[in-house]
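Project outcomes to date are best conveyed with an example. Our students and postdoctoral researchers have been running inverse folding experiments weekly, and each run begins with a structure described purely in C-alpha coordinates. The record below, which covers 191 residues, was selected by the lab manager from last quarter's runs and is presented without edits.
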Protein backbone atom coordinates (compact mmCIF):
# COMPACT_ATOMS: atom_id res chain seq x y z
CA UNK A 1 0.00 0.00 0.00
CA UNK A 2 1.53 3.33 -1.02
CA UNK A 3 2.05 6.24 1.35
CA UNK A 4 -0.14 8.52 -0.72
CA UNK A 5 -3.07 6.14 -0.83
CA UNK A 6 -2.96 5.46 2.92
CA UNK A 7 -2.84 9.15 3.75
CA UNK A 8 -5.60 9.83 1.24
CA UNK A 9 -7.73 7.09 2.79
CA UNK A 10 -7.37 8.79 6.17
CA UNK A 11 -8.31 12.17 4.69
CA UNK A 12 -11.25 10.66 2.80
CA UNK A 13 -12.46 8.87 5.92
CA UNK A 14 -12.38 12.13 7.86
CA UNK A 15 -14.26 13.91 5.08
CA UNK A 16 -16.95 11.24 5.08
CA UNK A 17 -17.36 11.54 8.84
CA UNK A 18 -17.52 15.34 8.57
CA UNK A 19 -20.18 15.10 5.89
CA UNK A 20 -22.28 12.52 7.71
CA UNK A 21 -21.98 13.55 11.35
CA UNK A 22 -20.18 16.88 11.61
CA UNK A 23 -17.08 18.09 13.37
CA UNK A 24 -17.88 16.62 16.79
CA UNK A 25 -17.80 13.08 15.38
CA UNK A 26 -14.29 13.40 13.96
CA UNK A 27 -11.69 11.66 16.10
CA UNK A 28 -8.71 9.47 15.38
CA UNK A 29 -10.51 6.25 16.37
CA UNK A 30 -13.44 6.92 14.06
CA UNK A 31 -11.09 7.87 11.24
CA UNK A 32 -8.90 4.75 11.51
CA UNK A 33 -11.96 2.52 11.74
CA UNK A 34 -13.43 4.10 8.63
CA UNK A 35 -10.10 4.01 6.75
CA UNK A 36 -9.43 0.43 7.89
CA UNK A 37 -5.97 1.22 9.26
CA UNK A 38 -4.42 1.04 12.72
CA UNK A 39 -4.10 3.97 15.15
CA UNK A 40 -0.30 4.04 14.76
CA UNK A 41 -0.86 4.51 11.03
CA UNK A 42 -2.96 7.59 11.74
CA UNK A 43 -0.24 9.04 13.97
CA UNK A 44 2.39 8.30 11.35
CA UNK A 45 0.69 10.84 9.08
CA UNK A 46 -0.94 13.25 11.52
CA UNK A 47 0.00 14.49 14.98
CA UNK A 48 -3.69 14.66 15.93
CA UNK A 49 -7.11 15.27 14.43
CA UNK A 50 -6.48 19.03 14.25
CA UNK A 51 -3.48 18.38 11.98
CA UNK A 52 -5.70 16.31 9.70
CA UNK A 53 -8.43 18.98 9.76
CA UNK A 54 -5.78 21.59 9.00
CA UNK A 55 -4.78 19.71 5.85
CA UNK A 56 -8.40 19.37 4.74
CA UNK A 57 -9.00 23.05 5.49
CA UNK A 58 -6.01 24.01 3.37
CA UNK A 59 -7.37 21.88 0.51
CA UNK A 60 -10.77 23.57 0.75
CA UNK A 61 -9.25 27.05 0.79
CA UNK A 62 -7.03 26.14 -2.17
CA UNK A 63 -10.18 25.15 -4.07
CA UNK A 64 -11.62 28.60 -3.26
CA UNK A 65 -8.44 30.28 -4.52
CA UNK A 66 -8.69 28.34 -7.78
CA UNK A 67 -12.17 29.78 -8.29
CA UNK A 68 -10.77 33.28 -7.89
CA UNK A 69 -7.80 32.62 -10.19
CA UNK A 70 -10.14 31.45 -12.97
CA UNK A 71 -11.19 35.07 -13.56
CA UNK A 72 -7.86 36.87 -13.22
CA UNK A 73 -7.48 37.33 -16.98
CA UNK A 74 -10.72 39.27 -17.42
CA UNK A 75 -11.10 42.99 -18.00
CA UNK A 76 -13.71 44.81 -15.96
CA UNK A 77 -14.85 48.15 -17.35
CA UNK A 78 -18.05 48.91 -15.47
CA UNK A 79 -20.23 48.03 -12.50
CA UNK A 80 -22.30 45.45 -14.41
CA UNK A 81 -19.17 43.55 -15.44
CA UNK A 82 -17.95 43.76 -11.85
CA UNK A 83 -21.27 42.34 -10.65
CA UNK A 84 -21.18 39.52 -13.22
CA UNK A 85 -17.64 38.47 -12.24
CA UNK A 86 -18.44 38.74 -8.53
CA UNK A 87 -21.63 36.70 -8.90
CA UNK A 88 -19.71 34.02 -10.78
CA UNK A 89 -17.09 33.91 -8.00
CA UNK A 90 -19.72 33.74 -5.23
CA UNK A 91 -21.66 31.00 -7.03
CA UNK A 92 -18.62 28.95 -8.04
CA UNK A 93 -17.08 29.27 -4.59
CA UNK A 94 -20.27 27.89 -3.09
CA UNK A 95 -20.40 25.05 -5.63
CA UNK A 96 -16.79 24.10 -4.85
CA UNK A 97 -17.65 23.95 -1.16
CA UNK A 98 -20.71 21.79 -1.83
CA UNK A 99 -18.58 19.46 -3.97
CA UNK A 100 -15.89 19.20 -1.28
CA UNK A 101 -17.01 16.33 0.96
CA UNK A 102 -17.40 17.65 4.49
CA UNK A 103 -17.13 21.20 3.15
CA UNK A 104 -19.74 22.72 5.45
CA UNK A 105 -18.19 21.28 8.62
CA UNK A 106 -14.81 22.57 7.46
CA UNK A 107 -16.24 26.04 6.80
CA UNK A 108 -17.46 26.11 10.37
CA UNK A 109 -14.20 24.72 11.76
CA UNK A 110 -12.09 27.27 9.90
CA UNK A 111 -14.15 30.07 11.38
CA UNK A 112 -14.90 28.72 14.85
CA UNK A 113 -11.78 26.86 15.97
CA UNK A 114 -8.93 29.19 16.97
CA UNK A 115 -6.38 26.49 16.04
CA UNK A 116 -7.66 26.45 12.45
CA UNK A 117 -8.84 30.03 11.87
CA UNK A 118 -5.41 31.08 10.61
CA UNK A 119 -5.91 28.87 7.54
CA UNK A 120 -8.98 30.85 6.47
CA UNK A 121 -7.46 34.18 7.45
CA UNK A 122 -4.20 33.56 5.58
CA UNK A 123 -6.00 32.22 2.53
CA UNK A 124 -8.25 35.27 2.48
CA UNK A 125 -5.24 37.56 2.91
CA UNK A 126 -3.58 35.90 -0.09
CA UNK A 127 -6.78 36.04 -2.13
CA UNK A 128 -7.29 39.70 -1.21
CA UNK A 129 -3.81 40.48 -2.50
CA UNK A 130 -4.66 38.74 -5.79
CA UNK A 131 -7.79 40.88 -6.03
CA UNK A 132 -5.86 44.09 -5.35
CA UNK A 133 -3.22 43.17 -7.95
CA UNK A 134 -5.98 42.33 -10.44
CA UNK A 135 -7.69 45.71 -10.06
CA UNK A 136 -4.41 47.59 -9.86
CA UNK A 137 -3.32 46.11 -13.22
CA UNK A 138 -6.57 47.41 -14.71
CA UNK A 139 -6.07 50.89 -13.32
CA UNK A 140 -9.05 50.58 -10.97
CA UNK A 141 -7.11 50.66 -7.69
CA UNK A 142 -6.56 54.11 -6.25
CA UNK A 143 -5.41 53.01 -2.79
CA UNK A 144 -3.99 49.49 -2.44
CA UNK A 145 -4.25 49.37 1.36
CA UNK A 146 -7.89 50.51 1.30
CA UNK A 147 -8.79 48.02 -1.43
CA UNK A 148 -7.00 45.25 0.46
CA UNK A 149 -9.27 45.85 3.45
CA UNK A 150 -12.33 45.99 1.20
CA UNK A 151 -11.33 42.74 -0.48
CA UNK A 152 -10.95 41.02 2.90
CA UNK A 153 -14.43 42.20 3.93
CA UNK A 154 -15.81 41.00 0.60
CA UNK A 155 -14.25 37.56 1.00
CA UNK A 156 -15.57 37.19 4.54
CA UNK A 157 -19.01 38.29 3.31
CA UNK A 158 -19.00 35.56 0.68
CA UNK A 159 -17.76 33.01 3.24
CA UNK A 160 -20.55 33.93 5.66
CA UNK A 161 -23.18 33.71 2.92
CA UNK A 162 -21.95 30.24 1.96
CA UNK A 163 -22.14 29.12 5.56
CA UNK A 164 -25.66 30.53 5.86
CA UNK A 165 -26.80 28.64 2.77
CA UNK A 166 -25.71 25.34 4.32
CA UNK A 167 -27.42 26.22 7.60
CA UNK A 168 -30.72 27.08 5.90
CA UNK A 169 -30.93 24.04 3.64
CA UNK A 170 -29.86 26.04 0.56
CA UNK A 171 -33.06 28.10 0.62
CA UNK A 172 -33.11 31.08 -1.75
CA UNK A 173 -29.69 30.16 -3.09
CA UNK A 174 -29.81 32.33 -6.22
CA UNK A 175 -31.22 35.33 -4.35
CA UNK A 176 -28.56 35.05 -1.65
CA UNK A 177 -25.81 34.76 -4.25
CA UNK A 178 -27.11 37.86 -6.04
CA UNK A 179 -27.43 39.87 -2.81
CA UNK A 180 -23.95 38.80 -1.75
CA UNK A 181 -22.49 39.83 -5.11
CA UNK A 182 -24.30 43.18 -4.94
CA UNK A 183 -22.96 43.77 -1.43
CA UNK A 184 -19.40 42.92 -2.47
CA UNK A 185 -19.57 45.28 -5.46
CA UNK A 186 -20.68 48.04 -3.06
CA UNK A 187 -17.94 47.11 -0.58
CA UNK A 188 -15.29 47.49 -3.30
CA UNK A 189 -16.75 50.81 -4.43
CA UNK A 190 -14.76 50.83 -7.67
CA UNK A 191 -17.51 52.23 -9.93
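After processing, the design step wrote out the following sequence:
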Amino acid sequence: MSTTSTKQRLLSAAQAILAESGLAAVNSNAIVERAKVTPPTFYHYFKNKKALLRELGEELMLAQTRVLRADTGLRIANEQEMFDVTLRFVTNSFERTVAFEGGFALLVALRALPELADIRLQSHADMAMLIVDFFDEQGLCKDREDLLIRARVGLETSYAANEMLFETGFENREKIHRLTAEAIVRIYGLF
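The longest helix spans residues 114-137. The chain has a mean pLDDT of 93. The training component of this project remains on track.
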